[in-house]
Amino acid sequence: MNTRGFIQEEAKSVPVIYEADICVLGGSCTGVFAAVRAARLGASVVIVEKQNSFGGVATSGLVNIWHSLYDTTFEQPIIGGLTAETVARLGKRGAVAEEKKSHSVGYVLNTEELKIELDELITEAGVQPFLHTMFVAPVLEDGQLTAIMVENKSGRGAIKASMFIDATGDGDLCARLQLPLTNGDRRQPPTTCAKIGGWGSGRGFDDVTGFNSLQGLDLNQALLQHKAEFDLPEGFGWGRFVPGSKDVYMYAGTRVYHADCQDGLSLTQSEIEGRRQVRAIMDMVRKYGPDNQLTLLSLPSYIGIRETRHIHCAYRLTGTDVLHGVRFDDAIANGSYRVDIHHSDKPGITFQYLNGEQAYVRPGYPVEVGRWREESAENPTFYQIPYRCLIPGTYTNLLVCGRMIDVDPVAYGAVRVMVNMNQTGEAAGVAAYLALRAERSVSDVDPQELRAVLREGGSIIL
Fold first, then answer.
1. Class (C level, CATH) for 16-183+382-456
2. Threshold 0.85, pTM exceeds
3. Which Pfam families is this protein grouped with (predicted)?
4. Cβ burial, residue 304 (10 Å; 0-12/13-18/19+)
């Protein structure tokens, strides 16, 4: 960081603008689901979000897919709860399309409708929302976390609570508390998505990349052939049409290498570079695929960040745990999405599957197929995330959920997708309520009681 000295900020009294049992910091679907589950159990809950809407990468980042709620055989449902409820609610408005038995996509969402649906979930549950509100700093009294400082159009204020859930994605609260964390230099790079009108011919999708062809142009080959002319890095492209639309396509085809999205300046540069790449891709299509009359309809309000910090918790989920389908007695989430690693040092993606297969997919090149382990008679059909991955310790009233939970790089490649992270939010909300009710530390919550209450609320607990 390039600092130019320091300015002393004068001490001043800050008003307490809200008090609640539980404060959720971060309004992604994961954060919203944490808040709603706790509120439905009877807790008073406040949720703080820096954007103008809830939904995180799904809405503000335009990523319009949720993955399968079934195991790898598509026979056993493994994910329920608020993810399944939200899908059903969106279905009433024709705002979701299901892709059955797909390892790449389970549901395609109209993410503008999702924004409104999340508003309704928050309102119905009686959660107090604060949008356009930035987290500033934690407040400690006698070594205990008692409040957070925030700032919005009304100025600076404090929100007091008994329990706190860090659902910021980047672990902002935990980082400001100087809790131990992993912040490697091989983070999965971010992507700027875009909604583009006039896209494609409407033909079928490739099940690996989800890519839909343009008229008279092989986009993967064009990107390879003309990347130097348009200053485009090799990456990976996929997308889906907005449900109900025949030509509005959400395209995720940019890749911003060497981005450190927890750093203010790097994040700024990444946003500008991502948008530049969107325009460059469209300019290339205009020049070499003139049959396509493309119109840029929407850009995200923030870049699709895949990875920043991971907070050290009571347990670190490993790639071995995921790929071998290890079962945990404190499991609070299930998943079947493959390991999916967007490389920071080379183009393309490496996929690893629970059946031992492996594939390296580099657009424009043949898929390199292999195995990460020998064939076996039986294969796991799902994996689990234990509650311990949500407990950072040190503070008895703090939990984490979402993509900054404690996982190694291989495990993260699988668990990071939204349908998995949504479940960690629900678990954090229920666990915070149980700890509050029993007046105990979050680390002392009975895992079996947590699992039982989650099941009662609609979660699938295996």
1. alpha beta
2. yes
3. FAD_oxidored
4. buried
